[in-house]
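#lab-general

N.A. 3:47 PM
ok so I finally got the sequence cleaned up, no stray characters, all 265 residues accounted for. can someone with queue access submit it? mine expired

B.Y. 3:52 PM
send it over

N.A. 3:53 PM
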Amino acid sequence: MRLNLYLKARKNDVSGGVPGKFLHAVIGQDVSDVGSLASIIMYAFYLNETLESDEFCTVPIINMKREDLSSHAELKWLLDSCHFDYSSLIFVDEIDLSYYDLFGCLKLDLRNGHKLQTRQVTLKEAVVEVFNCRKAHFGESVYPWVENVTLGQDCSCCTLIAEKLFLTSPELSAGHGFSRLLLAGILMDTGNLTSPHCTTKDKYMTTLLLNGAGRFGSNVRYKMYDISDLKVVDILRKDFKKWTRGGKPDATSSRLMVSNVGMSP
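B.Y. 4:20 PM
back already:
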Protein backbone atom coordinates (compact mmCIF):
# COMPACT_ATOMS: atom_id res chain seq x y z
CA MET A 1 0.00 0.00 0.00
CA ARG A 2 2.84 2.39 0.83
CA LEU A 3 4.47 1.81 -2.54
CA ASN A 4 1.19 2.15 -4.43
CA LEU A 5 0.43 5.43 -2.65
CA TYR A 6 3.86 6.74 -3.67
CA LEU A 7 3.41 5.69 -7.32
CA LYS A 8 -0.08 7.19 -7.48
CA ALA A 9 1.10 10.49 -5.99
CA ARG A 10 4.01 10.78 -8.41
CA LYS A 11 1.80 9.95 -11.41
CA ASN A 12 -0.58 12.71 -10.33
CA ASP A 13 2.41 15.07 -10.17
CA VAL A 14 3.45 14.11 -13.69
CA SER A 15 -0.11 14.53 -14.95
CA GLY A 16 -0.01 18.06 -13.55
CA GLY A 17 3.26 18.87 -15.32
CA VAL A 18 5.45 18.80 -12.17
CA PRO A 19 5.33 22.59 -11.70
CA GLY A 20 8.30 24.16 -9.94
CA LYS A 21 10.28 20.93 -9.68
CA PHE A 22 12.81 18.87 -11.59
CA LEU A 23 11.53 15.61 -13.01
CA HIS A 24 13.99 13.05 -11.68
CA ALA A 25 13.23 10.02 -13.84
CA VAL A 26 14.69 6.64 -12.88
CA ILE A 27 14.79 4.64 -16.10
CA GLY A 28 16.19 1.27 -17.13
CA GLN A 29 16.89 -0.60 -20.33
CA ASP A 30 14.38 -0.62 -23.15
CA VAL A 31 13.94 -4.39 -22.80
CA SER A 32 12.48 -4.60 -19.31
CA ASP A 33 12.95 -7.74 -17.22
CA VAL A 34 12.16 -8.58 -13.62
CA GLY A 35 15.50 -7.24 -12.36
CA SER A 36 15.20 -3.98 -14.27
CA LEU A 37 11.58 -3.41 -13.25
CA ALA A 38 12.24 -4.13 -9.58
CA SER A 39 15.37 -1.98 -9.47
CA ILE A 40 13.91 1.15 -11.06
CA ILE A 41 10.77 1.06 -8.90
CA MET A 42 12.62 0.38 -5.66
CA TYR A 43 15.44 2.84 -6.30
CA ALA A 44 13.00 5.62 -7.19
CA PHE A 45 11.08 4.88 -3.99
CA TYR A 46 14.33 4.78 -2.00
CA LEU A 47 15.38 8.20 -3.34
CA ASN A 48 11.93 9.63 -2.65
CA GLU A 49 12.13 8.45 0.97
CA THR A 50 15.72 9.51 1.66
CA LEU A 51 16.28 12.74 -0.29
CA GLU A 52 15.62 15.75 1.90
CA SER A 53 15.26 18.22 -0.98
CA ASP A 54 11.74 18.94 -2.24
CA GLU A 55 12.89 20.30 -5.60
CA PHE A 56 12.74 16.87 -7.25
CA CYS A 57 9.81 14.76 -8.36
CA THR A 58 11.41 11.31 -8.38
CA VAL A 59 9.49 8.80 -10.47
CA PRO A 60 10.24 5.39 -12.04
CA ILE A 61 9.72 5.19 -15.80
CA ILE A 62 9.26 1.71 -17.30
CA ASN A 63 11.14 1.81 -20.59
CA MET A 64 8.59 -0.11 -22.63
CA LYS A 65 5.10 0.47 -23.99
CA ARG A 66 2.22 -0.38 -21.70
CA GLU A 67 0.70 -2.68 -24.34
CA ASP A 68 3.90 -4.73 -24.41
CA LEU A 69 3.43 -5.72 -20.78
CA SER A 70 0.91 -8.35 -21.90
CA SER A 71 3.71 -10.32 -23.57
CA HIS A 72 5.84 -10.48 -20.40
CA ALA A 73 4.25 -13.15 -18.21
CA GLU A 74 6.99 -12.88 -15.59
CA LEU A 75 6.45 -9.14 -15.15
CA LYS A 76 2.68 -9.50 -14.86
CA TRP A 77 3.15 -12.26 -12.30
CA LEU A 78 5.52 -10.12 -10.24
CA LEU A 79 3.25 -7.08 -10.29
CA ASP A 80 0.19 -9.16 -9.41
CA SER A 81 2.00 -11.02 -6.64
CA CYS A 82 3.12 -7.76 -5.05
CA HIS A 83 -0.36 -6.25 -5.46
CA PHE A 84 0.72 -3.38 -7.70
CA ASP A 85 -1.78 -0.86 -8.97
CA TYR A 86 -1.13 -1.03 -12.72
CA SER A 87 -2.76 2.35 -13.32
CA SER A 88 -0.16 4.08 -11.12
CA LEU A 89 2.79 2.88 -13.20
CA ILE A 90 4.21 5.18 -15.89
CA PHE A 91 5.40 3.59 -19.14
CA VAL A 92 7.72 5.38 -21.54
CA ASP A 93 4.98 5.87 -24.14
CA GLU A 94 2.88 7.75 -21.56
CA ILE A 95 5.29 10.60 -20.84
CA ASP A 96 7.14 13.05 -23.10
CA LEU A 97 10.60 13.22 -21.53
CA SER A 98 11.83 15.53 -24.29
CA TYR A 99 9.31 18.15 -23.11
CA TYR A 100 10.94 18.32 -19.68
CA ASP A 101 14.39 18.23 -21.25
CA LEU A 102 13.50 21.18 -23.50
CA PHE A 103 12.85 23.36 -20.46
CA GLY A 104 15.91 22.11 -18.59
CA CYS A 105 14.03 20.40 -15.80
CA LEU A 106 14.82 16.74 -16.61
CA LYS A 107 17.25 14.64 -14.57
CA LEU A 108 17.81 11.05 -15.71
CA ASP A 109 18.99 8.23 -13.49
CA LEU A 110 20.10 5.31 -15.67
CA ARG A 111 19.75 1.78 -14.28
CA ASN A 112 21.26 -1.48 -15.55
CA GLY A 113 23.24 0.02 -18.42
CA HIS A 114 26.07 2.34 -19.35
CA LYS A 115 24.22 4.49 -21.89
CA LEU A 116 20.77 5.40 -23.13
CA GLN A 117 19.16 3.62 -26.04
CA THR A 118 19.58 5.10 -29.52
CA ARG A 119 16.05 6.44 -29.65
CA GLN A 120 16.68 8.35 -26.40
CA VAL A 121 20.20 9.62 -27.13
CA THR A 122 18.97 13.22 -27.48
CA LEU A 123 18.32 13.16 -23.73
CA LYS A 124 21.91 12.25 -22.82
CA GLU A 125 22.78 15.65 -21.34
CA ALA A 126 20.08 15.10 -18.74
CA VAL A 127 21.84 12.02 -17.31
CA VAL A 128 22.99 12.69 -13.73
CA GLU A 129 23.61 9.16 -12.46
CA VAL A 130 24.60 5.78 -13.86
CA PHE A 131 23.94 2.87 -11.52
CA ASN A 132 25.27 -0.70 -11.78
CA CYS A 133 27.49 -0.01 -14.78
CA ARG A 134 29.56 -3.15 -15.36
CA LYS A 135 33.33 -2.68 -15.22
CA ALA A 136 33.69 -3.97 -18.78
CA HIS A 137 31.58 -1.09 -20.03
CA PHE A 138 32.74 1.68 -17.73
CA GLY A 139 35.53 2.83 -20.04
CA GLU A 140 33.02 3.19 -22.87
CA SER A 141 30.87 5.75 -21.05
CA VAL A 142 29.74 8.61 -23.26
CA TYR A 143 28.78 10.75 -20.28
CA PRO A 144 32.08 12.05 -18.85
CA TRP A 145 30.24 14.77 -16.90
CA VAL A 146 28.38 12.21 -14.77
CA GLU A 147 30.07 12.06 -11.38
CA ASN A 148 27.67 9.73 -9.61
CA VAL A 149 28.56 6.33 -11.07
CA THR A 150 28.07 3.09 -9.11
CA LEU A 151 30.06 0.09 -10.29
CA GLY A 152 28.09 -3.12 -9.96
CA GLN A 153 31.05 -5.49 -10.14
CA ASP A 154 28.76 -7.82 -12.08
CA CYS A 155 26.35 -8.37 -9.20
CA SER A 156 22.63 -7.78 -9.57
CA CYS A 157 21.43 -4.18 -9.53
CA CYS A 158 18.78 -5.28 -7.03
CA THR A 159 21.55 -6.52 -4.74
CA LEU A 160 23.10 -3.05 -4.56
CA ILE A 161 19.73 -1.43 -3.91
CA ALA A 162 18.98 -3.97 -1.18
CA GLU A 163 22.33 -3.15 0.39
CA LYS A 164 21.47 0.55 0.41
CA LEU A 165 18.15 -0.18 2.09
CA PHE A 166 19.69 -2.36 4.80
CA LEU A 167 22.36 0.25 5.55
CA THR A 168 20.25 3.41 5.49
CA SER A 169 16.58 2.45 5.80
CA PRO A 170 16.29 -1.04 7.34
CA GLU A 171 12.62 -0.45 8.13
CA LEU A 172 11.88 -0.41 4.37
CA SER A 173 13.62 -3.72 3.77
CA ALA A 174 11.44 -5.32 6.44
CA GLY A 175 8.35 -4.94 4.26
CA HIS A 176 7.20 -8.11 2.52
CA GLY A 177 6.49 -6.35 -0.77
CA PHE A 178 9.89 -4.66 -0.88
CA SER A 179 11.70 -7.89 -0.04
CA ARG A 180 9.75 -9.80 -2.68
CA LEU A 181 10.50 -7.27 -5.41
CA LEU A 182 14.24 -7.22 -4.77
CA LEU A 183 14.48 -10.97 -4.17
CA ALA A 184 12.74 -11.72 -7.48
CA GLY A 185 15.12 -9.34 -9.27
CA ILE A 186 18.22 -10.98 -7.79
CA LEU A 187 16.99 -14.52 -8.55
CA MET A 188 16.26 -13.61 -12.18
CA ASP A 189 19.52 -11.72 -12.68
CA THR A 190 21.57 -14.62 -11.28
CA GLY A 191 19.63 -17.61 -12.61
CA ASN A 192 18.50 -18.59 -9.11
CA LEU A 193 22.05 -17.96 -7.86
CA THR A 194 23.57 -20.43 -10.35
CA SER A 195 24.96 -17.97 -12.91
CA PRO A 196 28.78 -17.64 -13.22
CA HIS A 197 28.25 -13.93 -12.58
CA CYS A 198 26.51 -14.58 -9.28
CA THR A 199 28.59 -13.02 -6.50
CA THR A 200 28.93 -13.62 -2.78
CA LYS A 201 27.07 -10.35 -2.23
CA ASP A 202 24.14 -11.63 -4.31
CA LYS A 203 23.90 -14.72 -2.13
CA TYR A 204 24.23 -12.78 1.09
CA MET A 205 21.51 -10.29 0.18
CA THR A 206 19.26 -13.14 -0.95
CA THR A 207 19.60 -14.70 2.50
CA LEU A 208 18.62 -11.43 4.17
CA LEU A 209 15.66 -10.85 1.84
CA LEU A 210 14.35 -14.39 2.32
CA ASN A 211 13.61 -13.48 5.90
CA GLY A 212 11.02 -11.00 4.71
CA ALA A 213 9.84 -12.70 1.53
CA GLY A 214 9.75 -16.35 2.56
CA ARG A 215 9.86 -18.76 -0.36
CA PHE A 216 8.41 -16.20 -2.74
CA GLY A 217 10.29 -16.22 -6.03
CA SER A 218 10.85 -19.96 -6.31
CA ASN A 219 8.63 -20.02 -9.41
CA VAL A 220 9.83 -16.78 -10.98
CA ARG A 221 12.03 -18.42 -13.61
CA TYR A 222 9.20 -20.75 -14.58
CA LYS A 223 6.94 -17.74 -15.04
CA MET A 224 9.47 -16.22 -17.45
CA TYR A 225 8.70 -18.99 -19.94
CA ASP A 226 5.01 -19.39 -19.16
CA ILE A 227 3.00 -18.44 -22.26
CA SER A 228 -0.21 -20.24 -21.35
CA ASP A 229 -2.15 -16.99 -20.98
CA LEU A 230 -0.71 -15.26 -24.06
CA LYS A 231 -2.54 -14.64 -27.31
CA VAL A 232 -0.83 -15.26 -30.67
CA VAL A 233 -0.07 -11.57 -31.16
CA ASP A 234 1.52 -11.43 -27.70
CA ILE A 235 3.71 -14.45 -28.42
CA LEU A 236 4.94 -12.87 -31.65
CA ARG A 237 5.61 -9.57 -29.90
CA LYS A 238 7.52 -11.38 -27.15
CA ASP A 239 9.86 -13.36 -29.38
CA PHE A 240 9.62 -12.09 -32.96
CA LYS A 241 12.39 -13.11 -35.35
CA LYS A 242 12.69 -11.08 -38.55
CA TRP A 243 13.27 -13.48 -41.41
CA THR A 244 15.22 -12.23 -44.42
CA ARG A 245 15.79 -13.46 -47.91
CA GLY A 246 18.66 -11.96 -49.85
CA GLY A 247 19.21 -9.33 -47.17
CA LYS A 248 15.64 -7.98 -47.34
CA PRO A 249 12.69 -8.56 -45.02
CA ASP A 250 10.66 -11.53 -46.15
CA ALA A 251 7.01 -10.66 -45.63
CA THR A 252 5.92 -14.07 -46.93
CA SER A 253 7.90 -15.89 -44.27
CA SER A 254 6.42 -13.66 -41.59
CA ARG A 255 2.90 -14.35 -42.80
CA LEU A 256 3.63 -18.08 -42.85
CA MET A 257 4.92 -17.91 -39.30
CA VAL A 258 1.75 -16.14 -38.13
CA SER A 259 -0.37 -18.65 -40.01
CA ASN A 260 1.44 -21.64 -38.53
CA VAL A 261 1.18 -20.32 -34.99
CA GLY A 262 -2.51 -19.67 -35.44
CA MET A 263 -3.07 -23.23 -36.70
CA SER A 264 -1.27 -24.90 -33.82
CA PRO A 265 -3.52 -27.09 -31.68
